[in-house]
Structures are given as structure tokens and as C-alpha cells.
Write a structure and sequence with these properties.
405 residues, alpha/beta, Rossmann fold, Helicase, Ruva Protein, domain 3, Arc Repressor Mutant, subunit A, 3 domains, 5-stranded parallel beta sheet, two-stranded antiparallel sheet, 19 helices, 7 strands, 56% helix, 11% strand, globular
Length: 405
């Protein structure tokens, strides 16, 4: 017991005294928004121009930002909202601004709770109906004469898991407000997101769209050089490590977030091992760790039906077809006493799981029977079991899959 206590104390002492690697670790976090966003001037200009009418009391158009992960969508939205807030304060213009990551919020109630908090509306953490939450937000906006902008990050997660009612109510806000309005910035890496929206929502959105291109290898290296300069002590990060991190991130569709994560995790590996440099071996080790952590996080955050589909694929041996997956999935739903989704919706979830890298869903010709997806797991079942074992609803199904496999 004492030995362990001393060991932990040593760890904390070393962490407190450690100044060899990092200068400012915070600039290497994924939620850090730098004062200067490189290679995104055009996107900043478009978002700022689209939102600027709010400064003279006019309603901005709803704006949707699309692009793959790590292309700067969130950073640009946060950057523009921050500068817009500063401009409004300097001009004594009253506005409400809210940013919510819907995946992190997880539920409609929590999304509305965060919007209410940002708008200065007092609501309980739980206990109100969704309609009452909207009523309180709209009453406060009307009473205070504060129009607003709501940025909904990963908006596709909200719609795919909870439907589009919340989005619909927000688009109709001006009908319920007395001269005020709420405009929306939607952020998504799914260009097909709108396929999930009801026609009434599409009609009321009347949105503009902006697609963010991936960063080039040269742009990624420049961004990393800047972050390394801000985040690491001088001469700690080698040129070889910087080149490798840039190349690996460029191979992942120009993902700047992944690039910054790579250098941060590599620095933490060097720090834990008592090294004074960050070199290529630490970058490669960081890549393995990030990939493993990403898959575990993706599995853990899946909705129940998506987890059941993963287990349905895991149960298959030879008959790898969408029909076979749906048959297993329906059986699992029946055993849990829940209603299964439609085959079309399950097919859509297979595509989402493929995008996450959890399984592949290649399409093959079935002759006269048409075409069918052939799902295949891309990660070991042992990993799935470890992650899903924390869900009490899945214990019996996990045992069935393991025994059958």
C-alpha cells in the first residue's frame, strides 16, 4: 500500500516539475481556437458576411457548414461568433449567441438547456418537457428583445438520433417571437445530412451552404509548425517528427485536428518516458494510440440500434448480406422488447458505421435480385466486447455472439 502511494506521489511530483517538453499544452487541445486561423480567410469572410445583418436588427440567413473532420468548420464558426460578440458589445447591440456540440450534449433536452444557458435563461437540468423548454427560451428572447444565432455542431448526430423536431422549432422561431428571430449555423461532416430532413424542415430552413475543402500537406505543415512553436519548448520537436505528422494527417483527408492531436499525444509520450525530444517513434506510437482511442470512443458513443447492428454483423459467419444483418438485428430487438428500425434506416446506419471505420459496407451485384451491401467488421470482436460490456442491455446478446462466434 505504501509503495503504491509513494509511486503515485512520484508521478505527481514529476508532472509538477516537468517543463522539458511543453510550453503551453492548451494550444494543442482540439477545442482551442487560435487568434489566427490560417488558410480559412475566405470561409471566415463568408460566415461573417452572412451573420452580420444581426448587427442592424435584420435576420441572417441560416448557414450550413460542410466538410470532413478537421477542415476548420468548428474553429471558423467559433471564431466568427466570438468576433461578432465583440462587435455587438462595442456597438451596444443586444444579441444572443450560442454554440452547442449536439453529440456532446447527446439529448434534445441538453441541447436546449445549453442554448437557454447561453441566452441567459434559467431552466432546470431536467424535468421540463421539450415544448416547455422552447416556451421559456422564446419568452425570454421576446421579453429581452434579444435576437440570436445558434450554432449546432455535428447537427447530423442530433437529427439522425432524435429526429428533426428541434431543428424545425428553431426554424419557426420568428413566427413565435415578437419581432425577434433566431438564425442557425449548422455544422456537419455529412454532405447527405439533408436527406434525413422532413420536407417541411427543408422548406423552413432556406439555408445557404458552405463546403470546407481539406487542408493540403503544405498547409497542414504550416499549421503544425505554428502550434509546435506555441505549444512546445524550443528545439524539442524534431523536423522529422513534424514532417511525419504532417504527412500522416494529409493522408487522412487533410485533417488538421488529427495532426494537432498527433503532436500533442507524441509530446505526452515523450514526457511520460522522460525524453527530452519528440521524434518519429513517438509520432508512430501516438498514431496507434489515437486510432485505438478513436475507435473505442466511437463504439462507446453509438446509439443502441447502431450497437445492435454492429453485433448483428459480428454474429455472421458466411452470409454477409444486408438481409442477414437485418434478420439478426430484428431478433435482437425482439429479445430486448424494442421496435426495430426500417430496413432503409438500418442500411443508412450501416453507411454511418462504415464512415466511422467500424465496419466496411461494400456493395455487390446480386444478379436479378439487384445490389446488396456486404458488411464486414474492421475491428476485433474483443475490442467490441470490452466497450459494449459496460451496457447492461447488451450482456445476453454479447454472450450469444461470443458463443456462436
Amino acid at each position: 500500500m505504501d509503495d503504491k502511494s509513494v509511486s503515485v506521489d512520484d508521478i505527481f511530483d514529476r508532472a509538477y516539475k516537468s517543463t522539458v517538453i511543453f510550453k503551453d499544452r492548451n494550444v494543442l487541445r482540439s477545442d482551442y481556437v487560435p487568434e489566427k486561423l490560417y488558410f480559412r480567410d475566405e470561409q471566415i469572410k463568408i460566415v461573417a458576411e452572412t451573420m452580420s445583418p444581426i448587427l442592424h436588427g435584420s435576420r441572417p440567413s441560416n448557414l450550413f457548414l460542410y466538410g470532413k473532420t478537421g477542415t476548420g468548420k468548428t474553429a471558423v464558426a467559433k471564431f466568427v461568433l466570438s468576433r461578432l460578440n465583440q462587435a455587438a458589445m462595442s456597438k451596444s447591440v443586444k444579441i444572443n449567441l450560442s454554440y452547442v456540440n449536439t453529440r456532446m450534449a447527446a439529448t434534445e433536452y441538453r441541447v436546449l438547456y445549453e442554448i437557454a444557458r447561453d441566452f441567459g435563461v434559467l431552466v432546470p437540468h431536467t424535468g421540463l418537457s421539450i415544448s416547455e423548454m422552447f416556451d421559456r427560451i422564446f419568452r425570454a428572447v421576446s421579453a429581452n428583445h434579444f435576437s440570436g444565432i445558434v450554432a449546432l455542431d455535428e447537427i447530423d448526430f442530433l437529427v439522425k438520433n432524435h429526429g428533426d423536431d428541434l431543428l424545425y422549432e428553431l426554424t419557426r422561431a420568428s413566427e413565435r417571437l415578437k419581432g425577434e428571430f433566431i438564425s442557425i449555423i449548422g455544422i456537419s461532416n455529412d454532405l447527405t445530412f439533408k436527406d434525413y430532413l422532413d420536407p417541411r424542415v427543408l422548406s423552413s430552413l432556406s439555408e445557404e451552404e458552405l463546403v470546407f475543402p481539406p487542408y493540403t500537406a503544405e498547409e497542414l505543415k504550416f499549421i503544425l509548425m505554428d502550434r509546435v512553436r506555441l505549444g512546445f519548448k524550443d528545439n524539442v520537436f524534431t523536423e522529422a517528427a513534424l514532417n511525419l505528422a504532417s504527412a500522416l494527417a494529409a493522408a487522412e483527408h487533410g485533417d488538421a485536428r488529427r495532426a494537432v492531436d498527433l503532436v500533442r499525444v507524441a509530446g505526452e509520450i515523450s514526457e511520460r518516458n522522460g525524453l527530452k525530444k519528440v521524434d518519429e517513434p513517438q509520432i508512430r506510437e501516438a498514431l496507434l494510440k489515437i486510432d485505438q482511442d478513436r475507435l473505442c470512443d466511437a463504439l462507446k458513443s453509438l446509439p443502441l440500434h447502431s450497437k445492435l447492428i454492429v453485433l448483428s454483423v459480428a454474429l455472421l459467419k458466411d452470409s454477409l448480406s444486408t438481409g442477414a444483418v437485418y434478420s439478426n438485428y430484428s431478433s435482437f430487438c425482439n429479445s430486448l422488447g424494442i421496435t426495430e428500425l426500417t430496413p432503409r434506416r438500418v442500411s443508412g446506419l450501416l453507411n454511418e458505421l462504415s464512415m466511422l471505420g467500424i465496419l466496411s459496407a461494400s456493395t455487390t451485384s446480386m444478379g436479378r435480385q439487384g445490389r446488396s451491401k456486404r458488411p464486414k467488421l474492421l475491428i476485433p470482436f474483443a475490442t467490441i466486447k470490452v466497450v459494449f460490456s459496460g451496457d447492461p442491455l447488451l450482456s445476453d446478446i454479447l454472450n450469444k455472439v461470443e458463443i456462436t462466434g
